[in-house]
Design a protein that fits this description.
The protein has about 100 residues and is of the alpha+beta class.
């Protein structure tokens, strides 16, 4: 596989109940809560994606608000090279693109 793309659950579990009703009441909980810090699935992806990618493959993940530095640290700590972080139209860091640095 050359590419893994994910919009993982990234909302801290304690914040799920504070979401807007149209999100909180209609999205499956498992699609929202990402653990106590909202980072559990990033850790899982960073640790497991390499075994599923071909050489030179990339991982692209959506970021939650304010998570850029933490997610970057998770991927870099697992030996990934963060190629770029792309902002959305509001200039919020929203997409992280990484490739294997090894």
């Amino acid at each position: 596989m050359d590419l893994i793309v994910s919009n993982p659950p990234y909302i801290p579990d304690a914040e799920v109940e504070t979401l807007q009703p149209e999100v909180r009441d209609h999205e499956p909980r498992m699609a929202l809560g990402g653990g106590s810090e909202g980072l559990d699935f990033y850790r899982m992806i960073a640790s497991q994606a390499r075994s599923r990618l071909t050489a030179g493959g990339r991982v692209i993940v959506e970021l939650g608000h304010g998570q850029e530095l933490a997610v970057r640290a998770i991927f870099e700590g697992q030996g990934w090279f963060v190629e770029s972080v792309v902002a959305d139209y509001a200039r919020t860091p929203r997409i992280l693109i990484a490739r294997d640095a090894k």
